[in-house]
Amino acid sequence: MQVNTSFRSSDILKLRIGEVFFQEQFKNQIWNRQNKTDRTNMLSISSSILFDLKEALAEYNRLFFPDYFSHPELPLFPSGQKQGSKFVPLAYSTYQNIIKKLIRAIGLNPDLYGTHSLRSAVPLEFFEKEGDIVTTSHMFGHRSTATTQIYVEEVAKKKASEMKTKYNFSD
């Protein structure tokens, strides 16, 4: 869910069932107020995310209890631990470990990729193709294009290094 969205990990982990599931159906959009910027962002639920959520529904019903998704106050990503009678959301450190295992499983170096690089992949690819910093900034959910410029400059440095190597160019 973190790829193709401006949602940060902290925003994803705090989601509740009621924000994505209503009257026994998944919503087409998720509205979320970002912790970091206090801005409201919208995520359209793609068919691939919907498929994953439907699989999660079946798994939650098996792991937790049969009508888990009928409780709007429960976390969308539960840890399995309870505080009183309520399940608590997955911890960020646990989420990071899951992401690192998945990255390793597809043959990439988990030290080079993480939750933040997943969030930035699509906006940076858009910028590389279109060169539109304002739209890229909105895709990230940044308050200012100055923040987005930091990411863009990192991509430019990497690209310059690759071009120097490719064309045997030295400073």
Q: How would you describe the overall organization of this protein?
A:
By secondary structure, this protein is of the alpha+beta class. The chain has helices at 9-13, 17-20, 47-63, 92-105, 115-130, 133-140, 145-166; strands at residues 21-22, 25-26, 29-33, 40-44, 78-83, 86-89. It has a two-stranded antiparallel ribbon with strand order 1-2. A two-stranded antiparallel sheet has the order 3-4. The protein has a two-stranded antiparallel ribbon with strand order 5-6. Strand 5 and strand 6 form a beta hairpin. The model has no long low-confidence stretch (mean pLDDT 82).
Net shape:
elongated
Largest sheet: 2 strands, antiparallel
What is the strand tally? 6
Compute the separation of the termini in Å.
41 Å
Spell out the helices and strands N to C.
HHEEEEHEEHHHH
Defining key terms:
single chain, 171 residues, alpha+beta, two-stranded antiparallel ribbon
